[in-house]
């Protein structure tokens, strides 16, 4: 059982301190344009007159030009990408966003939209001198229908704040991410974020009821209805879900919130090998049925890295693989008994070597801390190459041993963890420091292997800046041509989040 409990906020606080120390020491990542050899497109150059104009649209304190103020908006949180923006704008309303974009489009000034800046593929930071349009002040909750579960809010609302708010009304947000304390709902929708409970509540294409978005020319597209059924013409909201701010900027969201589960339980199990994880997943679906809300896996290196680097306790002993299983139901006694029977059955079968089941909120949070902090733990050991791919379950873990063999001693760690329930694995390759040699060993090799297995090179993190030239491993030429046509139609000057998502023609 779990004895040592440390509140989740401690880890988040420590991670923020780690980032602050790195920034303060001026150990900045290499400029993205130099690191990846990108040429600036023929956009306009920001002049003093442009800054003066923006100060007439926004109050002066919402127009940032000081280098120290702008720097955090130029760097992604894993310190992989760094842009060269000299200007950050903080609108508070859709009309302000519209006015800014209309002006930028006329002047051909490129814009980089930014939410919580928690992305992992460089999609939320500029590459050159794009104007950063931060949604941090567009954080109002507009309405909540407690009967239908329809929440309407602005794009800059932090996911965790929304979840806390709807929980007061016996509802929950349909997605849950490790970055929930910082990420914005607008960014979640723009990247079609998946998260920890997609198995139970589905993806955002199903949960999002409507959006309000602003096109590059300032036109406001109002598709903010909170209806579950609206079959009048093309479903335009889907153009903005997952397009990463390249077709338009999401300013408001209508999203369906499921009922707050009355009973929540978590199981954490040690497993001998990955084949047994698949057998355990099949058994969980059969035994737990409708109450199964999450089925996560992590290999030994994933967990040991988190335990070592962040001092988060492991509630069970050391095993080759781990499974975190969660249930959401309406009857605590019934669900707990169901989960306990499942644990006893599979320990007897040998699929589970050791495990613990709990319904205690503090103990459940400790277990989730172990899983949610894997992504950040490796940053302490060096530079991380992060990959987010979808694979058929039979091939889910295949790439991890292949990469370990391919990199050998050049990598400090290669580990895999992720969402078995939706086929999404995260592969982290930790090296002492970034090198072109390591990068060349990984890319495009990993994407070639994903393609051979009929997988996707991006499961939930998006394409961003890091993957446009690899997107052809997941989309054929005809699909890419249609995407280019959509981009040309909706943003003919290409000012919205340039250098992202689509490859150069």
UniProtKB/TrEMBL annotation:
Keyword match Oxidoreductase: yes
InterPro entries, per the entry: FAD-bd_oxidored_4_C (IPR004113), FAD-bd_PCMH (IPR016166), FAD-oxidored/transferase_4 (IPR051264), Oxid_FAD_bind_N (IPR006094)
Keyword line: FAD, Flavoprotein, Oxidoreductase
GO CC annotation terms, alphabetical: mitochondrion
Domain of life assignment: Eukaryota
Domain FAD-binding PCMH-type: 81-260
Ranges in a coiled coil: none
Catalytic activity: (R)-malate + A = oxaloacetate + AH2
Cofactor requirement: FAD
Function: Catalyzes the oxidation of D-2-hydroxyglutarate (D-2-HG) to alpha-ketoglutarate. Also catalyzes the oxidation of other D-2-hydroxyacids, such as D-malate (D-MAL) and D-lactate (D-LAC). Exhibits high activities towards D-2-HG and D-MAL but a very weak activity towards D-LAC.
Pfam families tied to this protein: FAD-oxidase_C, FAD_binding_4
Oxidoreductase is among the record's keywords: yes
Protein name: D-2-hydroxyglutarate dehydrogenase, mitochondrial
Family: Belongs to the FAD-binding oxidoreductase/transferase type 4 family.
Enzyme Commission designation: 1.1.99.39
An annotated Gene Ontology molecular function: FAD binding
